[in-house]
């Protein structure tokens, strides 16, 4: 995932925060916290996940599509992004 | 989170699977896997998270709103669900 | 749609605004406006549609589920809401 | 919106279908149809809107970004797509 060389640490940090939020949901379920709290936690995770996904799509678009070195690489990267968009919209 | 007494184990298992999917994203980033793969992983997490959220909302509706013991409890549970819906839609 | 007796006019006004936004997309396509503009219009429609749907779900929850006159009506209304949630999340 | 020259008629037909679905919601509200039916109609509109948006984003990516004639045009088209992605995710 070359385009994240520079930004890799930041992305990994965001993923770890998301994992931490999942662990909070797990603890909330196990300690039988109010359901409303669990739903709020899940909604926040969704927001954070969307933010991360959009950022990664934008990086991919900028570094792999726009700045591709060959036409073949550009088409390949665009096709990956198109596939991710389809899955993303379907998967909601 | 009383309404998940019965289903708690199943919910916890789903949360752990989601956490495992997050860890796969973390590994994918660290081992510099292709960006398209990371985007696919994120899209799958989104789908799994939506499925879990809808299921929890339905359980909450059925067990805390419909089967509430008092009117006050019912209103409280409905207000929690309404708040979760707002956050969920806003947070995408 | 009894629970909208009071709020019916407001809801109809919002729907008409959405229809107007669709007509703007139609005109933008026909007059070959930049694709980015059309995408922005579609994204705005999505936001307005989500807002309207959440509001209607909240009204339904409050007036048909919480304030149902019989248990049977309450269960029926809750089941309609659960079905709408499923379709909504799947349909994204 | 040059990239839809070929596909313009198909897109306009889909937008008109969406407008027709909005009109069905308007009629359902005015004739006081059950709220559950209105929610189902809104959820279907959301699905159709997402499908249309993804298709348009893919076309934009393929025709304006990948097949751009100059680097400046490519960057401009990519920036429009990035902006649409941000609004889309935020606007849910």
Automatic annotation (TrEMBL), chains A, B, C, D:
CDD domains, per database record: RcnR-FrmR-like_DUF156
InterPro entries attached to this UniProt entry: Metal_Tscrpt_repr (IPR003735), Metal_Tscrpt_repr_sf (IPR038390)
Listed Gene3D superfamilies: Metal-sensitive repressor, helix protomer
GO biological process: negative regulation of DNA-templated transcription
Taxonomy of the source species: Bacteria, Pseudomonadati, Pseudomonadota, Alphaproteobacteria, Hyphomicrobiales
Protein's recorded name: DNA-binding FrmR family transcriptional regulator
Provenance organism: Rhizobium rhizoryzae
Molecular-function annotations in GO: DNA binding; metal ion binding
Family statement drawn from the similarity comment of this UniProt entry: Belongs to the FrmR/RcnR family.
A Pfam family per the record: Trns_repr_metal
UniProt entry keywords in alphabetical sequence: DNA-binding
């Amino acid at each position: 995932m070359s385009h994240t060389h520079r930004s890799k640490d930041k992305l990994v940090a965001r993923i770890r925060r998301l994992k931490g939020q999942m662990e909070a949901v797990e603890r909330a379920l196990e300690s039988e916290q109010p359901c409303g709290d669990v739903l709020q936690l899940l909604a926040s995770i969704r927001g954070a996940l969307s933010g991360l996904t959009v950022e990664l799509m934008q990086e991919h678009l900028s570094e792999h599509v726009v700045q591709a070195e060959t036409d073949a690489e550009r088409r390949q990267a665009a096709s990956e992004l198109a596939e991710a968009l389809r899955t993303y919209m379907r998967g909601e």
